[in-house]
Automatic annotation (TrEMBL):
Protein name per Swiss-Prot or TrEMBL: GTP-binding protein YdgA
Pfam family, any one: DUF945
Natural source organism: Yersinia aldovae
UniProt cross-references to InterPro entries, sorted A to Z: DUF945
């Protein structure tokens, strides 16, 4: 009997403790909502200061073991100009919060790790999202189940629903997707992984042909954080198993094995990074055109200047999105050019370096490659001259190019066959074109040909150019090839008067 009383007493005490802890956790959650909203608005102000939107919460209903709240994204009246959302429009997220230390939602999944809360999130069907919910047939396009630790960090499992939508001659089939994300309390550190099996989009073009775009096997991984310049740094990987495009059921192009890897880092003043692209196979109308890769790297890029440039670029893009069909392409291009030219000098403060090593393309007959290294400099450190900004900013250039003629002939043959030539005609035409290009390159001294390989090497430093072993001044090079609008090099002044004709 005594043992039974002890057991009952323990259960009562534990139940009371759990109830008290759950009630207290509910109060902590409510107190931290303001912090969450402030962090989100801080990110908006940093990344999109002129978007004209802000994050807020309302309708919070706190219970003993669970609560509900509505987070909303709405127009920010304190920001002037056109906004991403109209006044009165809302993008709303409905959250059901199970309080810790052992949230009921976690217990259902036999997860006994103590946490502040377990949160279930869905997107609300608001007037601003009417068209989206028509596509999803009234269902939230995604749901998220998150665990919030007492430190404030969040781990989420996000599921995007499958979609099968058709309207007139347009249709979309989407298998759905999943994303797992770990986000720090201040939202500055994010780890994420996601995948989707396939998406197929079909519509008729202006010639009444049925076009279809398909994507299969999408995976994404990211481990990033906000650096000291409020720019995201870290590692990202994107992979796509296959992309395809067809017209009226006929395969036009297929890309297989696309991969993108990005690494971004920083020092006290500068940013550095490397982007690597690769494609395992490109097929056009069933013809195998080969594979390719590109590795692009930069170092010593002034961090503060890049932050300003990124902010200006994001605003230009946002304005273009807001303009929609009213966008003037020529005016937009002019604005982007002016913005770029205005920011280039500041971006060069750290004397950055840029490299491509390599850009290559490979088919059954060989591999062509191009390598480039450029040392840039702050134009303010250059000597006072009338040279264009580009020339003032370049300190050194090294470039090499190799093209096996057999490889180029194979590639050109396939291109000719797509134009309707027979296999024999395409082969003959390709050989003539490649041999003509090789001869022209040698005639203008741009390339050399040895052992059936077209090659070229270029070196520039201290106002001197070395092109395939030919040394000349930059001015002679510009005059020789007419680059940058230059004419023939000026003759040396002998002090004699010109002879009248």
């Amino acid at each position: 009997m005594k043992k039974s009383l002890v057991a009952v007493s323990v259960i009562v005490v534990l139940g009371a403790a759990w109830t008290g802890a759950s009630w207290y956790t509910g109060k902590l959650i409510e107190q931290r909502m303001g912090e969450l909203v402030n962090n989100a608005n801080g990110q908006i102000r940093t990344l999109l200061p002129k978007a004209g939107v802000k994050f807020a919460y309302k309708d919070y209903q706190r219970g003993l073991f669970s609560s509900q709240v509505r987070y909303i994204l709405q127009a920010d009246s304190s920001v002037a100009g056109e906004k991403a959302l109209k006044e009165g429009d809302e993008v709303a997220f409905i959250e059901t919060i199970d309080h810790g230390p052992f949230p009921l939602a976690q217990l259902k999944r036999f997860n006994l790790i103590p946490s502040m809360a377990s949160v279930h999130t869905e997107l609300a069907n608001t007037p601003a999202l009417k068209k989206l919910f028509e596509v999803t047939k009234g269902k939230s396009p995604f749901t998220a189940d998150s665990r919030i630790s007492y430190s404030g960090d969040t781990s989420s499992a996000i599921t995007f629903i499958a979609i099968d939508y058709q309207q007139n001659t347009t249709s979309m089939k989407f298998s759905g997707a999943t994303i797992d994300a770990d986000v720090s309390r201040d939202m500055r550190n994010v780890k994420m992984s996601g995948n989707s099996d396939n998406i197929v989009f079909t519509s008729k073009n202006q010639w009444d042909q049925l076009e279809q775009f398909s994507l299969q096997g999408l995976t994404l991984k990211s481990d990033s954080k906000m650096g000291k310049f409020d720019l995201s740094i870290g590692d990202q990987q994107l992979a796509i198993k296959q992309m395809g495009f067809s017209i009226d059921g006929k395969e036009m192009a297929t890309l297989a094995g696309f991969n993108l890897n990005t690494q971004l880092g920083e020092t006290d003043k500068d940013l550095n990074g490397k982007l690597t692209y690769s494609l395992d196979a490109l097929k056009i109308q069933g013809n195998d055109f080969g594979s390719g890769k590109l590795a692009f790297a930069f170092d010593k890029l002034d961090g503060q200047s890049l932050k300003q440039f990124t902010s200006a670029y994001n605003q230009q893009v946002l304005q273009a999105v807001q303009a929609g069909e009213n966008l003037d392409p020529e005016a937009y291009q002019q604005q982007m050019t002016e913005m770029l030219l205005a920011n280039v000098p500041a971006l060069l403060k750290g004397n950055p370096t840029v490299s491509i090593a390599p850009l290559s393309w490979k088919n059954a007959k060989g591999e062509s490659s191009f390598n480039l290294n450029i040392d840039l400099m702050d134009p303010a450190q250059a000597k006072a001259t009338v040279e264009p900004l580009l020339l003032k900013s370049v300190k050194k250039v090294d470039a090499t190019l190799t093209i096996p003629m057999a490889m180029a002939t194979e590639l050109t043959t396939q291109a000719a066959r797509l134009q309707g030539y027979s296999a024999e005609e395409a082969q003959k035409l390709a050989q003539q074109q490649v041999q003509g290009i090789a001869a022209m390159g040698q005639m203008f001294k741009l390339t050399t040909t040895k052992d059936d390989v077209i090659s070229s090497s270029f070196h520039f430093a201290d106002n001197q150019v070395d092109l395939n072993g030919q040394k000349m001044s930059l001015q002679e090079f510009v005059g020789l090839f007419g680059m940058f609008g230059g004419g023939a090099p000026a003759e040396e002044d002998t002090g004699s008067e010109p002879v009248a004709q």
